[in-house]
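Shape is hard to put into words, and the shape of a protein is harder than most. The fold becomes a row of whole numbers, each drawn from a learned catalogue of backbone shapes. The outcome of that step, for a single protein, is printed below.
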Amino acid sequence: MSQFIPSLKPCDVGGCEKARKIHEVAFFLAMYSISLGTGGHKPCLQSFGADQFDDDHAEERKKKLSFFNWWNIALCCGLFLGVTVIVYIEDNVSWGVAILILTITMAVTVATFYLGKPYYRYRLPEGSGLTPMLQVLVAAIRKRKLPSPSNPALLYEVPSYKIQGRLLGHTDRLTFLDKAAVLEEEEITNEMKHNPWRLATVTKVEEMKLVLSIIPIWLTSLPFGLCVVQTATFFVKQGATLNRKIGHNFEIPPASIYSLSAVGMIISVVIYDKILVPFLRRATGNERGISILKRIGSGMIFSVVTMSVAALVERKRQKIAEEDIDVLDGEKNVELPMSVFWLAPQFLILGLGDGFTLVGLQEFFYDQVPDSMRSLGMAFFLSVLGAGNFLSSFLITAVDHITEKDGKGWIGKDLNSSRLDKFYWLLAAINSVNIFAYVFFARRYTYKNVQRRVAATNLNKDDGMELMP
């Protein structure tokens, strides 16, 4: 509306007037609407898609393992079109036309999604996922002085036929919470409904353990989020100073360089899903090929390589800037005689890492949180990127403040007079140290222990039970 209604548009062909209140209201209303809509569908849509596969059927479970890979390929295709076609239309046609195309596309998407409503699988509501965790904590504190049974089978659990969800097997981590499932003498003799604030099932205790156990993995994922943020900020800003011409007439918009990370991620995910997983599945006998945490850790190595390559390329760019006459004369926005494709390796390498770490984190937070909290699990993943943005801002401010004391800060308004390469080396060092911390916690992590009903198509029994870690 702000692009097509004259009264809402502060700029025209003749120039831009000072923005009035109505312009600010229209702009921020649009921004907050996007934020509200994104916050509503992003954590839920992906988990809803994964819920369409039945974990109790081996064939569907195998397809579900590829779901997150192909979901991210679709996202990368959308990202590629967004930073190439849409950006080109914005620069060469008009912002109004570009936004209109996006609006129509989103409307068609919502309509298509709604048409599938009768065919979707829906999980039955199970109430708040936070209340049972609080109940476990209260019950464990109340029974902290009781001795734990030597056999975990003596802990309280309800029969599987009495509940709708899946039961979780006992694990030997965070055993102080097991006190919540210890049966007192009066609870053994009383067959009436137990007070959930005094007695919790093993499943509820294990769900609490799951949430507490993923926190170290979440924390050690944040440095990778720091690297991902750079692709949309400093990497693009670097590209704006370089020669972006292809031939004599076409110039790549700076934002379009970001599409290279999407290309890298698509390559990574396709190779992983179609080549690595089948090979590793045969070699290891693991249904996933390798464990989720190994996949995440493999991608973290790419972040160190990316920042190291970015530092070397940036140092080369700075040396060219130091020798350029226009830069020496103090001119701003100088296009350096260096191709923008020097930045391609750092975009592609981080894209390859995204295919391991980001997709792995999505799968991990979906799979390892309690079943009733899977949307919250996807919010955990999104918070890695969100917290990465905040940490990046904090780190830039801190580095700039500290390095300015020596007279020349690492990060200034003019990249040519900054030392962005040192900042990249700092990020490489942070991620290198973080990998050791991640490995420490990952080696001690215990996966969810699910008692899963398995549909058997070639057996006389309708279903069986298997214990799946």
